Amino acid sequence: MTKKMVLPMILAVLFFWPHVGQGAESFRLTYDRAIQADGKGVKLLHPEGVAYRDKTFVVADTGNGRLLRFVLTRGELDGGLVIVIPQAARPMQVHFSSKGEILVLDGQSRRIVRLDAEGKVLGMVQPQGVPGGSTLMVRAFALDAEDNLYLLDLFGKRVIVTNPVGAFQREIPLPKQGKAFADVALDPKGTVFVLDSVNAAVHAAARGAKTFSPLTNDLRQYATFPTNLTSDGRGGLLVVDRNGAGIVKIGQDGYYRGRQLEMGWKAGLLYYPCQLCLTDNDEAVIADRDNNRVQIYRMAR
Amino acid sequence: MNLRLKIIRRVLPVLLLLPLTAYGASAPKKGDFKLLPGASGKICLGCHVDLPDKIAKKFVHTPVKSGDCAGCHNPHTSDHGKLLAAAKGEICSLCHSSMIVKDARSTHKVVVDGSCALCHDAHASDNKNNLLRSGKELCFGCHQSVADALKSQKFPHKPVADCTACHNPHSSKGGDFLLSADPPALCSKCHDTAGKKFSAVHMGYPVAQVSCVKCHDPHGSNRKAILYDEVHSPVAKKMCNQCHEEATSATPLALKRKGFELCRGCHNELVNKIFIAERIHWPVAGGNGCLDCHDPHASRASKLIKGSMLKVCGSCHSDTIKRQERSPAKHQPVQKGECAACHNPHASSNPFLLKEPSVIAMCGTCHEWMKHSTHPIGDKYNDMRNSNLKMDCLSCHRSHGTEFAKMIPFPTVTNLCVQCHEQLRR
User: Fold this and answer.
1) In a domain, B154, yes or no
2) How far is A234 from chain B (nearest CA, A)?
3) Chain B residue with minimum CA distance to A5
4) Which residues of A are less than 8 Å from B386 in CB distance?
5) Is the domain covering A27-300 a CATH 2.120.10.30 domain?
6) Which of B388, B125, B318 is nearest to A61 (CA)?
7) B278/A107 Cβ within 8 A
8) Which tens digits make up the pLDDT trace of A69-106?
9) Which domain holds residue B354?
């Protein structure tokens, strides 16, 4: 081997090194346990939402028209507090604010209700000063670290950003190439992501950006009809493939990193999963809608 | 670098490319076979006795006319049928290379596939361009649905007698569907869109810049002015200003309201029903509202749907439609595109926007027998795989099909049954 051949070989190894590293990144979900019922044994029915913060889970038990709050004590969940509120008779998505408040999107009224940690209604989120008329059709929402709200408004084809009390801050138009946007998510840097179910594609707008740009290509070979999107807090995204019953990981570069889980009824399998959240203990929690349960998985990454 | 390495570097690519070069040269050229005079064609007729009659027709393919059979056929051997000198998809393009124009927006599939013989006779024909049949009869050989529609329609569009009046048969860079240009430019070649009459029948709205096929069926219809068979009531009554700004306004084609709010003006009861339901079909709530699925002016399909349900629903739910296509067992409503047989396309208070609250009741609307003869199903029976589920039809079947028989999600019935009846597993 001549000296001249050594240099191209080193360059080739250096070029391919990062790609090899990314492809080999491990992403594995291992079933741990499930939330099946409240403390009185009333079983979950079509739960669509789940959120976690500070050892507390809140579940949108959609079919039963209620929220359930569970607190984790020494690794065990308590009996669960049942929260029934007429303002959210069909809860479909839940998030915690940084203060521990619970925010619930009602699928029927498409409005967001704010509750305190004990489930007492604090009021409705009333977006104010939004340009383009008063009609909003909120399909999904997300919060940033300052509790600003990001509302995916299908009627206005935009993401509306409001301050924590609902005052309009700005809006980001949805990408025109998208067909059916189903979720909005934020990462710790403030990047806003939107998920197009039909094209199985994610679009991103960096903090303060006025437009979305495609983050991923068409991911339909990995996710048939994704509907929920969650930042993994480390630059990656977890996409819930509802119709395909799986979880797809996307790297911060928008490339596919792996797929876990599959369709079924037994423990650990999914049947039309919806919202996914992560705990501070490297767990992924999934509202497994048509299996009438919430499943918790240990996440290796 | 030593001399040996230099030689290898230069010779190796040549050696690698050599077989390709030889392959590319396989198409015959005149003189390749060093044939005796007459042997390139006339001599063939000695055996192929039916050919003289055939080539006596009005239009003869140039190589045949010049007696050059070897222009297309290899007289000795060939890897291709009929001793053709190149593959079916390539032989014609050796001479007719420009059938698919550069930057074509639409192409005729048969041309792309190289199936030229579906339309042309390679030897001779009584029709111009060696076509197998003349005029629209040739096209209707494949496009039967257009032919069927023409038979019953009251108001034909005269140019349909000759498809090539609007369509290029091979490819087009002017428009989709092989149209030589997009409407309205294409239509305005015959129709005077600047005249007073045109303006009057369109209520003074500047529709000359809008695609005519939004309202008019270019192949003819059963309605006057060849409007599509299903016409939205305000259009039929020429009440365009019910949805659009006044014709005299600065923005006459602008809509008065957006999304479902516009349609609510007339369809208030339906819209209220939709928004009262627990689950909405999200496109209804979107910025386009009803127009994602319905045509606001006119349509071939009933209820002004933009096309068949298979097409309209499948434009978003392609995964579901594809699943059915792959499934060996077909669920009739899905196959026929009758999505609304089970689902309410607007909204429902039931999961999956089903029309019935219970899956068992839903399936029972067609599968009546299962009410008296079935595996235990219903609220009394827990699913042994998941205590939070009751047994219903979807415990064993997937309504849009699977890759296995009987729409079950496992390769065999045994595989399915032992999911619960584990003691029977062998």
Assistant:
1) no
2) 31
3) B1
4) 265-267, 291-293
5) yes
6) B388
7) yes
8) 999 988 888 888 999 999 999 999 999 999 999 999 99
9) 316-426
